[in-house]
UniProtKB/TrEMBL annotation:
UniProt family annotation: Belongs to the radical SAM superfamily. 7-carboxy-7-deazaguanine synthase family.
Record has Phosphoprotein as a keyword: no
Role summary: Catalyzes the complex heterocyclic radical-mediated conversion of 6-carboxy-5,6,7,8-tetrahydropterin (CPH4) to 7-carboxy-7-deazaguanine (CDG), a step common to the biosynthetic pathways of all 7-deazapurine-containing compounds.
GO molecular function: 4 iron, 4 sulfur cluster binding; carbon-nitrogen lyase activity; magnesium ion binding; S-adenosyl-L-methionine binding
Binding site for Mg(2+): T38
UniProt cofactor note: Binds 1 S-adenosyl-L-methionine per subunit.
Binding site for S-adenosyl-L-methionine: Y35, C36, D37, G70
Chain positions recorded as [4Fe-4S] cluster binding sites: C29, C33, C36
Cofactor needs: Mg(2+); S-adenosyl-L-methionine; [4Fe-4S] cluster
Enzyme Commission code: 4.3.99.3
UniProt cross-references to InterPro entries, sorted A to Z: 7-CO-7-deazaguanine_synth-like, Aldolase_TIM, rSAM, rSAM_sf
Protein name per Swiss-Prot or TrEMBL: 7-carboxy-7-deazaguanine synthase
Pathway annotation: Purine metabolism; 7-cyano-7-deazaguanine biosynthesis
Amino acid sequence: MKIAEIFTSLQGEGLVSGYPTIFIRLAGCNLSCSYCDTPTSRQGGTDMDVSEVVTRVLLENPHYVCITGGEPLLQKNEVTVLSCQLMNAGKKVSIETNGTVPFDDLPDGVSVCMDVKCPSSGESSDVTLLPCLKSTDSVKFVVGTDEDLKYAEKIIHNHPIHSEIFISPIYGTDYQQIATYILEKNLPARMQLQLHKFIGLP
């Protein structure tokens, strides 16, 4: 596997926000978002066997493991094996994906967070994947502009989504304006701020 970094922090977003989590950041991405906060993970990385990654992670004895990127599903075969081994060791595993690679064949028990790319990202996700999300998964819209909010609203209303929906402002944007929009439109979504950035964690 191509690994960018492995580190421990508080999960700053999503269904298990606030829990201590070990992050496995895979190298390589098929998108180039304008606000990407880990551009160095788009390429390069260190080669590690799945068994090496599992050993490294289990040394930390985490309850939660998040496989992120880059785009982790570009290495889906290895990610599948890694997820199974970690779940067999009793760990709760989530995968953050940009929604460009199908994920319906991932092992049961893995929680998927699909990041639907909004216009200000300069990229796009495959929204036909949204019906594949389960109640134990989540979808996230990272928003920074009115255009992003209108896009998120349109996607939410026009696609069946059976998972939790998060609207996540880009760090440093006008949070009150985004909250007001969610309230005025009565969106079935939960606003979340990136906890780790507010308290200065990676």
